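Researcher: Please generate the 3D structure of the following complex. Treat every line as part of one assembly.
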Amino acid sequence: MTHIEITYLINSLHSKELIDAIRVEQTIEYPFELAPTWIQEQIVGKVVSQKEFDKTRTEVTISYNSEITGFEIGQMLNVIWGNVSLFRDVKITKINFPDSFLTKFKGPRFGIEGLRNSFKAKKRPILATALKPMGLTSSELAKMAAIMVKAGIDFIKDDHSLANQKWAVWNERVKIISDAVSEANAKFNRNSVYAPSMNRPAEQILDAALKAKGLGCGAVLVLPGISGFDTMRAIADSDDFALPIMSHPANLGSYIMNPNHGFNHEIIFSTFKRISGADMSIFPNFAGRFSFSKEECLTIANSCRDKLANLKTIMPTVGGGMTLDRINEIVDFYGNDTVLLIGGALHRGDLLENASRFREIIEQFEN
Amino acid sequence: MTHIEITYLINSLHSKELIDAIRVEQTIEYPFELAPTWIQEQIVGKVVSQKEFDKTRTEVTISYNSEITGFEIGQMLNVIWGNVSLFRDVKITKINFPDSFLTKFKGPRFGIEGLRNSFKAKKRPILATALKPMGLTSSELAKMAAIMVKAGIDFIKDDHSLANQKWAVWNERVKIISDAVSEANAKFNRNSVYAPSMNRPAEQILDAALKAKGLGCGAVLVLPGISGFDTMRAIADSDDFALPIMSHPANLGSYIMNPNHGFNHEIIFSTFKRISGADMSIFPNFAGRFSFSKEECLTIANSCRDKLANLKTIMPTVGGGMTLDRINEIVDFYGNDTVLLIGGALHRGDLLENASRFREIIEQFEN
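Model: Done. Output below.
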């Protein structure tokens, strides 16, 4: 029997009651004293350590038999945060998964090494951009994509807001942009990939991923906060699909924006994404228009590249209000094993010029 | 062109900048001044009203062209909360969907009227319970289910923690319990339904719902916070499936537990669930072991039963630490169009006796 250890920071005067509630609630959800002895002993969570910082702040680590997850992502999330999400003032600051749990998951198919091979980028950061704004036609977006290929952007994704709107419906858009990227790759001797957004209806999403591949897309963008972490895992696990996955943070702010509730950033943006098969995890850079601190960003990036049983390391993907004149500072901060995602800022002035400059700056890091 | 109006409560000294950021971020995510004029005018969100309560609290309503959702649940969630979830101190307190948007969705297939017909319950509340605890075998859970049928519990669901654990694997469990419920229905002249938990892997969930139906299950339990709201919609929309759906709040606490971030309770537990096809929405009762206030609970219940374009009204389903001696008070508070979900408390003492007493108390409300 191996165990998952979850550390909770509890901000409450009633930490004792809360701790008892959590270990029962997240397992048997049943009066403890009525459960058979073996269930009390082997299934209900057990406190393994506890530290009282002051009257209202207690840190507690509870261990759970990993069998209660059934070794599936959905039940893993349910054990970790299902009903406890409805308790006030409980924050999960750390999770230790045993290797015997993690080895049940394939995780990222490509990871840092696989991405470096496919982009023929030995040392430098990977360049990424987004096709936007919503409202442009598929052909307009395709022209934009061709410029990005010419400039040498490695990874060209749909803006995360592009779903199936009438201005550029999914089927048409993915074909037209994918064709434009292939053509431009041949013409300019590049190997850029186009990643359509997989914000598709649940019953179509796996087929849509295969369709994207069939149309020549080299990767996809998945929004696990909307489609579900396990949907991302299903796409990653598909041997018929077998392309890199970039994951987007949409809707995931709910889990990490509150100091006394939810999760530490790296659990959502690195650990869960990695177990669920993302090769790249987008998160907003500090000092952009979002609210992550420098430390939170670095913790995510480090966690993406830390050892985690058999799971490949993945590329932290930094985006959100980034500009060309900050690239050196950003690479210096995150290191080379990073994807730099610059969207809107490339459009101020001449797009080809800006995108080419982006590549030029990044090329320096190859040597 | 019709619009979705979203009201945000902003707790910040920088509300002006935040409001501009939100209306651009949730649409074009691109420098406003660089977008074509028609996109600025027709796609970017527009402030329709604004109220400053004090220096740090501003309420603003922004209207969005409903076409930007593509009339799909995934992109609806993305427009409403995608990137703004990563902003601090923004809470969504109200959403007005135009009828032209809502009529694109089928919503709940059964709703209150359909549930009343299938349970042959004209006026009384519906009785529900959960099979638990995790760790019991399928046969033990099936025996428990048969007792519930005998007592006259309408709706018998898997505990939400039952997924595919070795003690009662999904395929086996669903068959054994479903058989036991059918047998008991015949024997005791009841029409109880068994609802297995659909916490299944993403690529199997739709097939699993059909399998459950094939095995004789009369409904299912879906966890939209884990499987995704659109997955619930896909199950509800399937004409081959066509059974009632009870939705569980697991993981949804992230969206509603923080006074300055997320959503008002009824948006998540009523509006989103209803658009996504739930016939019953479980939420924790006030004064139980969770943290919802009396007012929050009532707002959810009322919203489940309010007019919402063409979408059927649904049954608020109250659970969490409820006991038999509180039923009269609870029905008095919520009204008869309610599902009462009592789990653990039925097991203190004799199960058949308690469950029969539960039915007996509820029967009074039929007349």
